[in-house]
Design goal:
Rhopdopsin 7-helix transmembrane proteins, Beta-Lactamase, Alpha-Beta Plaits, 4 domains, elongated, binds ligand C2E, binds calcium ion
Amino acid sequence: MRIGFSVFCFVLIAILIVCAHIARRSRKSVGKPLSLALIAILITVFGNLVITLSNAKLMSSVGYYIYYIGMDATVFLLLIYSLAYCDFKWPNITIRIAVYTLLTIDLVQYILNPFFNQAFDTEAIIVEDNLYYRSIPYIGQYYHRIVCYGILAAMLIILIVKMVKSTRIDLEKYAVIFVAIVITALIETYYIFSRRPIDTSMIGFALCGVLLFYLSLYYRPRRLLDRMLASITSEMPEAMFFFDPNGKCVWVNGPGRKLVGVTIGNYETVKDDLTFLFGDIDFTASGWNRRVTLGTEDDVNYTYIAMKSITDDRDRITGTILRVRDITEDQLELKREMYNSTHDSLTGLYIKEYLYESIDKRLREDKVTDYMIGYVEIMNFKVINDVFGKEFAELTIKKAAQAIEGYISAKSLYGKLSTESFGVLISKKNFDETAVEKNLAIFSVSDGSMDHRILVHVGIYDINEDDEINVPLFFDSARLATTKIKDDYSKLIAYYDDELRNKIMYEQLLSNQLPGAIESRQIRPYLQPIVDEKGLLSGAEALVRWIHPEQGFLNPGKFIPVFESNGLIADVDRYMWRCACEILADWKKRGIDKFISINISPKDFYFMDVPAEIRKLVEEFGIDPVKLRIEITETVMMTDSGDRLKIIADLRSSGFLVEMDDFGSGYSSLNLLKDMPVDVLKIDMQFLRDSERNARAGMIIKNIINMSQDLDIDSLTEGVETAAQFERLYVMGCKLYQGYYFSKPVPLEDFEKQWFD
Ligand code: C2E
Ligand code: CA
Ligand code: CA
């Protein structure tokens, strides 16, 4: 008995050493106090071992001292451990001092015991033929017991407080410790009162230590985990249904119970309810998910359903879980975002990119010949914006958008292409040209006080069967169609047709051919004479001609506007100026003292430094600038006049004579003339033409000539076709004359033959 028990104690001590060591190194905050408590228990057990093994009075007394003092240490350190375990601090300093004082007194009384014998004494007894020393308690020993039980009670109170305060979920964490300590205390109490010689309670003591070690460091209450998981799933917004491997519903979380209307435990109807709500559900298969849309368009509900199997750690299927989530909000948010990124904020119409995409898709799905492409443009939008303000302009855009929505059929797609233009995919079947023209092409916008009529031009591209689908190109064509509409209000819809197609292709062809045409001198100057009052040659105007190998003789009216619109005019003019300089250089050599007028396009100013360019040429050919006259149209001088006037002044200061071409064709008033720093005024030929039937036009010519005389500017009349005209202008005092009456524009050789030979 004695040997067996001793061996057992040794084993316990060894285990406690290991546990204390591990606890010490644990990263948990409870590790250190636990390790100290385990050492204290270990000392107590060791004291007991000494008692058990000793057969001499002194040795057993030493054992009892170790045991009792170890017990003090044990309860104290368990208290510290409990505080750490429960995350408590000492409630207040008084209690702390009280505990320290009580224990110190106990320690002191044991030190005094050898002298006063007030705590305990030992007496020899024989048990199973063995000699033991049993302790006889005196008053001090009772004090010891009260202190120990007191502290133990404090410890249990701490645990109770913690259990009351804690959520139901981690109640168990404290309860297990509580129970372990209570059981140990009961075993100990039983020993004390049974007064058995061998203190078997030590086994309980040591086991309690090991238990605390395990519970504090490794044990995670299963129920705690279960409850935690259960509460998490219950708090989840999604409904969850658990089925066992046989497909029987075994558990449903809160939202799930609410969804199908069942109470805890009554899961028999769950499957039917789910089927009723969401249609056929395969409860046997797992790993699927689907989206279910329920309700009406205004009150729509999107639900996400997913079935997943649950496997254990050996990959065996232990059941399936069906998750049902209401994704209406996400889905609506997604739709809203989608809407904002594809719709114009002002009108709510599709934005250009999305419209193109949608039309492209539609055309690829449907028969392309069922559709037409419409380009709708609010005319004079910039003026509307300037005159009536931004608010009214926005109102106009909104009204136009409404008009489009109102008069274009549901099968159409439409959207906004730019600030003032819209695009429409028109379903041919539902298209009524007169209705569109009446209701859409002119609509009115009210600013509160008055109605303003807004004009809209509509260009249409009719998609051909063999057109490759290219939405941007279709809209380009529809937009080009609007260029056919004249500002006459009679026709507001125009179609892109073969004529327009050919025109565009023709323009493209000419543009491509231009460089080669200049190179091979297909493009060349014709000269038209300019004569004085006596009909004698003063000079000539250089007018461009294109002798085209296929198209034949081309007048500038055929290609100048095309090149003015794409910028190639600069190449033409640069070349023409050079030709004029070449001729002048030749004339200079031959002693011919005549001038040549060259034409400057308003567009030239955008592409080059005109004066610099011309000066360079004059220098290169070594000619007198006075011989090169510069024709600038009236409109050039009217637009941002400050800058242009400077350019003219610059040219004149370089010695060039500047002529104002087509005077009177634009908006200029005679008044402006005095501010125009020009040398020659070329009176627009329209006046002369009108003057044949209209006396007023004749009066105007006379006034212009008079005025120019006053301002010391030479006047030149263009378009003189008859002797009578020449006569009349001569009487009016005109200085220079140009027109078919003298000669049409002719090639250089003809010109020279006619005038110099
Ligand atoms: P413009 O500068 O007003 O040129 C005068 C136009 O009137 C010329 O037409 C000329 O042939 C025509 N003309 C002259 N006398 C008469 C007449 O008695 N009766 C009629 N009915 N017409 C007459 P053209 O050559 O067809 O040139 C037309 C326009 O093209 C020019 O008008 C000018 O603006 C432009 N242009 C011609 N050559 C050039 C050029 O090299 N560069 C630039 N930028 N424009 C040019
Ligand atoms: Ca001219
Ligand atoms: Ca002219």
